[in-house]
Design goal:
The complex is a heterodimer of chains A (113) and B (111).
Chain A (H helix, E strand, L loop, with lengths): L3 E4 L2 E4 L5 E7 L5 E7 L6 E8 L2 E4 L6 E3 L9 E3 L8 E8 L7 E3 L3 E5 L1
Parallel strand pairs in A: 2-11
Antiparallel strand pairs in A: 1-3, 3-8, 4-5, 4-9, 5-6, 7-8, 9-10, 9-11
Chain B lengths: L4 E3 L2 E5 L4 E6 L4 E9 L5 E8 L4 E4 L2 E6 L4 E6 L8 E9 L5 E3 L3 E6 L1
Parallel strand pairs in B: 2-11
Antiparallel strand pairs in B: 1-3, 3-8, 4-5, 4-9, 6-7, 7-8, 9-10, 9-11
Classes of the chains: A mainly beta (113), B mainly beta (111).
C-alpha cells in the first residue's frame, strides 16, 4: 500500500517555464488537496477536490491549475513559473475531508530561478 | 490566513523529559488535529480531537482541547530522540471546507 505518491521530489525551473507536479493515491479517498509550505509558515491550501471532476480554489490558487479526472490522480500545474512559487509542495488525501485524518505525500521541493 | 498559532516556536529538551506544545485558534471549530513532520519529509497525522471532546490519548501523546479559550495542547511524555520533529496543529472550521494550519513548533530532543 503506497499511500500518497508525489513526483518529482526535486525540481528546478526557470522563470516562465511550466510544469506539472504529479500526485497519486491508492486508498480510494475522495478528498485530495495541494498545499505549499514556506519557511516559518503553516501549510497554505492551493486547490482541493472532493471527488473526480470536482475541484475548487484554496487560499493561494493564483498561478496554479488542477484537474481531477480520476479518483486516484490529482496533478498540479504551474502555468508560468515565478520565483515566488519557490516552495515545498505537498499533496494530501483523506477519506472524509477536514473531519478525518489527512495522508501526505513526501513533498516536491521546487526552486524557480 | 493562519488560524492556529503554535507556541513555542522552538523547544529543546533533554531525552526523557516531557514536551508541551500549545495551539491557539480564532474561530469555532469542528475538530483540531496534530501532525508531526520530520525534516525533509511529509506530515504524519498524530491525533484528531473533536470539539465536544476535552482530552485524548495515544501512546505517549496527550492532547487537550479548551474550546472556551480556543486553545489546545500536545504533551509528549518521556521524550525520545526520535521525537525530534516539527509539530503542527490544524483546525477544521465550522464555516469553511478547509484545514487551517499553524506555523509549527520545532522540537529538539537532546540525547
Amino acid at each position: 500500500n503506497a499511500g500518497v505518491t508525489q513526483t518529482p521530489k526535486f525540481q528546478v525551473l526557470k522563470t516562465g517555464q511550466s510544469m506539472t507536479l504529479q500526485c497519486a493515491q491508492d486508498m480510494n479517498h475522495e478528498y485530495m488537496s495541494w498545499y505549499r509550505q514556506d519557511p516559518g509558515m503553516g501549510l497554505r491550501l492551493i486547490h482541493y477536490s472532493v471527488g473526480a471532476g470536482i475541484t475548487d480554489q484554496g487560499e493561494v490558487p493564483n498561478g496554479y491549475n488542477v484537474s481531477r479526472s480520476t479518483t486516484e490522480d490529482f496533478p498540479l500545474r504551474l502555468l508560468s513559473a515565478a520565483p515566488s512559487q519557490t516552495s515545498v509542495y505537498f499533496c494530501a488525501s483523506s477519506y472524509g475531508g477536514q473531519n478525518t485524518e489527512a495522508f501526505f505525500g513526501q513533498g516536491t521541493r521546487l526552486t524557480v530561478v | 490566513s493562519q488560524q492556529g498559532e503554535e507556541d513555542p516556536q522552538a523547544l529543546s529538551i533533554q531525552e526523557g523529559e516531557n514536551a508541551t506544545m500549545n495551539c491557539s485558534y480564532k474561530t469555532s471549530i469542528n475538530n483540531l488535529q496534530w501532525y508531526r513532520q520530520n525534516s525533509g519529509r511529509g506530515l504524519v497525522h498524530l491525533i484528531l480531537i473533536r470539539s465536544n471532546e476535552r482530552e485524548k490519548h495515544s501512546g505517549r501523546l496527550r492532547v487537550t482541547l479548551d474550546t472556551s479559550k480556543k486553545s489546545s495542547s500536545l504533551l509528549i511524555t518521556a521524550s525520545r530522540a526520535a521525537d525530534t520533529a516539527s509539530y503542527f496543529c490544524a483546525t477544521a472550521s465550522v464555516s469553511n471546507y478547509q484545514l487551517i494550519w499553524g506555523a509549527g513548533t520545532k522540537l529538539i530532543i537532546k540525547p
